[in-house]
Design brief:
The structure is a homotetramer. With about 350 residues, chain A is α/β, with parallel strands linked by helices. Chain A has helices spanning about 10-25, 50-55, 110-120, 145-160, 170-180, 190-200, 215-225, 255-260, 270-275, 280-290, 315-335; strands spanning about 1-5, 25-30, 40, 60-65, 85, 90, 95-100, 125, 160-165, 180-185, 205-210, 235, 265-270, 295-300, 335-340. Chains A and B meet through helix 2, helix 5, helix 6 and helix 7 of A and helix 2, helix 5, helix 6 and helix 7 of B.
Chain lengths: ~350, ~350, ~350, ~350
């Protein structure tokens, strides 16, 4: 940590900073400059309270050199975290996982049919929302536990693993009974009560980046889950807010190699929410894998014209098959493989 | 609602849009253009599912003309909502309310002393966090219910009303027992379970704008509270995320007159979080009132150098007195008044 | 300057950084930390080439402590720059200057009538574009030199000073013949050839902040003008790009006190372009003055319905009179005054 | 174009809008709604002056349905523009072009050596700045015409085509004498005098997206060049401004498929400026090609530690070879090819 003094700070101001750093239990290393003096804080263990230093007279700025997170960092754990699901899908290793399904679970016929189709196309994880966070209180809010039961049935019939969202602390317990992966959505990335409960659930957690979250904030939110003893976190880039209205969000694919350098956790991409446009899902899905993503989560709908939510960004099933083929080739071009297909249905658990 | 067709959409595509609109129970009005055709949806009652239209073949874009929110709008209620607290403070009328206090409740001496000082300076509402949402799981998380009890004691001694934050649905019930106003923080603006519970609490709610929330999203989140039967919502502009690192956030003061035109709800500003810099709180507090804010919420700390959170943006008590004076003059310059001072302590409830 | 090493940087990597800093002629001060080592560069004179250090092996990040600009900084010159125009208007002192007029000069009747009206309302500087930078090549591009002649005529008749835009290096010479202040627009803030030419023009320059320029970039662009020997630069906040579409831009009023702390140059605000909405110009003009702006530049049009550009954000003349009154009261509330009215027309130069 | 009326607009207000549209020579189609009325403008030929309608009483908003650009659009020209350079490189067809070289031309040895290396690696276009736009007036500004002569010499020796930047209108004429492609940088994307001159140069133009330019603005700037009769424009995504400081810019790869749908012009990506970090150039270069880019422009430097600019984002030559290999495989995975290698040096022109 570096405490930068204003150019007109007095020697007494500098001394107060030095004394305060020592009082906090660290070493202080003043660095005089032509324009201004800075004071280095030596021995930062990640617990320094910067705001106390920022508030001292003559202090211009406090610059953070150490990262504020711990257990999620590469420095804490060098080798990548690999998460293995009950159906054999491994996330975070050399294989690229494909998660797919409708935005919302709408009916038995819809989710079972959809599950069959994405399984036949080669996906190994089924997505589908039972609890839906919606900007408007008047929009469809999901089928709740009835939807979870249908997802579990789809798993029984196809062998697909299930990822679905929890939107409040109580919901975590219900979702954990049915799902293989608990999803935490972008709007809840800093819902710390929810993160803590997910950390205690014992289930892998798919944590989506908030609409304007920095990468540091994403990692700090993951840290909440790890701090509860749950190391099975999958991060997800799904687009950030931008000034251009051509796409719903701005898919920040550079976040993928940035996160991979900072953290041992797997990171996947959501090109459906990341663009909001069906016609952009295939090129951006390809691009995410080329950038190094450990997988994709994609919305597919058997009949997007009649979807209850997000129809405009859902792929038609034949488009999903095309995406699988193209992404498989991109993965091979960079020395990776898609997750192996599930064994034939008769062997499904 | 206007459905814009791609330039190469066929007449059949246009017909499908027209038929779908009629099937949904609305009238369709095609508008041919030189470049492309658009189809107007006539009779929009706010329940149209746009994604169904967006998913139709040949559709380029769906443009929303109607607002997605209802009860919060000026069209629903012409006259401004005025919220009256037990100590007589009125929010949303001609008076400008001043809320002040420390970021966090830290001790009995701190909060009681602080309350006395801001009351003497003329404020009528005391702020102070007992439950603190923090980006890092390793930061101070607040005194919880013990903090609430101290706030209630400060109210008893000074007559100030209390505003303090709830961070999860269960917390709403506890906070509602002690506080005059329940605050919902920026990170929780789209925590819909929390909004609904606050809507059922019977208490006024201070709803802060999310870090990258559009004004429409802010109003839709307020709509969640009104939809539960609670019309006592105070909106708060507290800065949005920006690309410039000189300030912690970018205080969007234009949101104040924009919200006032769209909604009957009161809106205040938080220049402390909105700038993150003590030296900018006074000018931006003045600017917010000049822009038409119904009040300010400001961080003040008796000893910012030893604050447990947000020390760098907290005013010293004499600075707060200066702010009160300057804001009072600005209010008068535009024909408003500060909330009258509270009667002397012996009359406090 | 602080060179932060990756956590797995070797002692040799650190040594290379130390050696390189010394080779560059500065002192190196290593600061070991628990997570990582940093190396302070002592004696930074503002000419350090950071990219050379960033490129060294094991370097994670280079953090700038010194500011990259010089002559524009408060550290270079403590007292505020005050610019005095031929008609007596002083910009940057205690007076608040009002600049007003149409977006574009459209005709003799329009500009002379407008000049009379804003002068009668109390403004002292007339704005009006003769060269218009337009996003589309098919939009009205201005009356060019004929427009400049009309502006000069308006000055002769009213005593108002003239501010008008130059859009390329050659244009600077023509504009300098007619104008009291040469405006450089937001799109050209980093058109360095234009900045240099304006720096050599001998005229005061009004430099608008680019649509997504950081405050450092704005000050560096001003530095280009000062580096040519021209210290008469007026900065202008006019809104930055945002994700919300309610307003054309997001007026960043906090930039005003931030710039005032960093630089001795005057700064004004443009609430017309900053909001793009006529109904928001008055509240945001008030707010800018309350935040400490040294003046406003505002679009007024005698007949906005028939304006050739920017009609929707132009005030009607009676609205401008209302703005003058309100802004005058705000100025007095913070101990400032509007620029005194010009003497009666018979005394105009 | 759709003119949306405020909910309290009177029938007279609506009539004025209808009359004004007719007076402008178009048809008006009112669309009544439950909340508000809208008026469609039928027959928009792209020349409608929206601000005139926005300024009418009772108008809430004007919504643009037609695109403001013409010649750059797919609607103007269905088949993709393919630009062929003198050395046989074709840009915009099925081949993916690789442009590479140092940020700045620094010396004869540097540029000739570099040219040889990138040519041997398979690139066909050499980049290198002779005129450098720099945020600070005190940074290295390039070798000017001496640099151009060195680039021409590198072309003679290697057969590579040359792309280099012009930073002002006069510069265009000089650059056009030496370069195969004239580059217009991000800061100058809306320097309309420069765009016009480039449009009259007769040379292909590489137009980089501005730091916060919308895709519409990028296309409108290209339109300035086409409007001068020069259809040989290559667009370039190079990152937009963001709130996260991990990367220099946020590379918006979705812009690639978005532009390809809207326009017939080729678009390439610059992962060097787009990320600012050497370690992110390879993954993001791969991702850009996977997203459909027609090529890459990449900074390579023989000795980044001693580069005069942008050292931290320049690849080492062996890294560039690795990028060529990986990008070639990605291109094949989506059915494209890299531009064929140049014939051996003895056949260079």
């Amino acid at each position: 940590m570096l405490v930068v003094m204003a150019h007109n700070a007095s020697p007494e101001d500098v001394q107060v900073v030095v004394d305060t750093i020592r009082e906090m239990g660290y070493e202080a290393a003043p660095i005089p400059g032509k324009q201004r003096t800075a004071v280095g804080l030596v021995g930062n263990d990640g617990n320094v309270d910067a705001s106390r230093l920022e508030a001292l007279p003559g202090v211009l700025q406090v610059i953070h050199v150490s990262q504020p997170y711990k257990q999620v960092s590469r420095e804490w754990r060098e080798e990548p975290t690999v998460i293995e699901l009950a159906n054999g899908t491994r996330i975070g290793g050399n294989e690229v996982v494909m998660m797919a399904g409708p935005c919302s679970v709408e009916s038995e016929a819809q989710i079972l049919g959809m599950a069959q189709q994405i399984r036949d196309a080669g996906a190994t994880v089924l997505r589908g929302g039972a609890f839906k966070p919606r900007s408007s209180p008047y929009s469809f809010q999901g089928m709740a536990e009835a939807g979870l039961r249908l997802l579990a049935r789809a798993r029984d019939e196809t062998g697909l693993a299930i990822v679905t969202e929890a939107i409040d602390p109580e919901g975590v317990d219900i979702v954990a009974q049915y799902a293989d992966i608990i999803q935490i959505g972008a709007r809840n990335m800093q819902n710390f009560s929810l993160l803590r409960r997910a950390g205690r659930s014992g289930r892998p957690v798919l944590l989506k980046r908030g609409i304007a979250a920095t990468i540091n904030e994403l990692l700090l939110s993951a840290e909440y889950i790890l701090a509860e003893g749950n190391g099975q976190v999958i991060l997800c880039e799904r687009g950030v807010r931008s000034f251009d209205t051509h796409t719903r969000n701005l898919l920040d694919l550079t976040a993928i190699p940035v996160v991979k350098a900072l953290s041992h956790l797997p990171i996947i991409a959501d090109p459906s929410h990341g663009t909001g446009l069906r016609s952009k899902v295939i090129p951006m899905g390809r691009a995410a894998v080329a950038a190094g993503a450990d997988g994709l989560i994609v919305e597919v709908h058997p009949d997007p014209e009649h979807a209850l939510s997000d129809g405009a960004q859902s792929l038609y099933p034949p488009q999903f098959e095309e995406l699988m083929t193209q992404v498989g080739e991109i993965a091979r071009a960079i020395g990776r493989e898609l997750t192996p297909r599930l064994p034939s249905p008769t062997h499904a658990r």
